[in-house]
Amino acid sequence: MIRYLTAGESHGPELTVIIEGFPSGLRVSKQVIDEQLRRRQQGYGRGRRMQIEADEVEITSGVRFGETLGSPITMRILNRDFRNWQDRMAVFGNPPENLKRVTRPRPGHADLAGGLKYGHEDLRNVLERASARNTATQVAAGALARQLLAHFGMEVSADVVEIGGIHAQHLPDDWAKRISAADASPVRCADPEASAQMVARIDEARERGDTVGGVFEVRVKGCPPGLGSHVHWDRKLDGRLAAAVMSIPAIKGVEIGLGFEAARRFGSEVHDPIAHDGQHYVRSRNSAGGLEGGMTNGEVVVVRGAMKPISTLYRPLMSVDMPTKTPEPAAVERSDYCAVPAASVVAENVVAWVIADAFLEKFGGDSVDEIEDNLAAYLRRVAKR
Ligand code: EPS
Predict the structure, then answer these.
(1) pTM (two decimals)
(2) Is 47 in the pocket of ligand 1 (CB under 6 A)?
(3) pLDDT digit string (tens) for 183-198?
(4) Which residues contact 234 (CB under 8 A, 6 or more apart)?
């Protein structure tokens, strides 16, 4: 229903997103998008690049007087750092005399596979696009989607539940309290004690010239039952969410609800008993993470992602210099020590996009008015069942 393309190199002039299929008549705010971009730039463990950038979106099509038109929406985010890279990242002309090529691929990065596949001698031609800088575009697209979700009563949030083996233990049950606790933490973890330990773990990694990964959790409330479908593999919403979260750089695992833990328990300890409160079907627990048969069931959607440690190590692992084939330590590029807090914000917006896509598939119309009618009619029918 809705789709987007992104473009841009990390140290090139800008990042670009083009969104197609977005309905007309939605009031949208640049501030909401900029706020998500700002959140993505934060989090303890980031490197010096984040002091250079101050991401902000410029919308150049598809919106007029603050309302979507139904036509493609173009968003641009400038790379401030480009001014320091103009010679090395020039679109035309010749490479500077003193250009240092990246020839020692970093284990864990796209460097080696991308260099072999695309035939690049300078691995910078791979890493510029493989850079997590591109997640700003995913956030910009998702920040538009979340405004559509908000219009229809849905809300997305995310926080960090694990960094470098330290787990959050005591998380507030209340939706708003959990968000404000995460907002107050430098690592976006809503358990203050675990948050302090996570900060110490990141410091430890930095001192060792090392990096750490972790786990984040995304939650969506207010989804009507029936988004996605059980009838075909590529329409299943759990699969679509997993693919989208997995597409975020450095994500190596995705869980829905209880996830891997469900595989260790009896069925009676896993599945969520069904009751009716006079108005709605309700559950006493939510092990399914709001998804059954590839469809939303009306409970909160819960998706977790596992991020590996950043692959640029200041004390690098061994690699090979590709032109000479001699063993050498891997290249060291300026990087982050831990980007799990940022990844949680990226995932929040990526999930918003997928939910908006499934929502439009179910209630689709070309304008917000039409979607409102479709949703209201469906909810009336569902309430009778
Ligand atoms: C990244 C390396 C760092 C990060 C970058 C992702 O950038 P640089 O090479 O310029 O120091 O800061 O993340 C971003 C720029 C961003 O906006 O998130 C990498 O190699 O993936």
Answers:
(1) 0.98
(2) yes
(3) 999 999 999 999 999 9
(4) 240
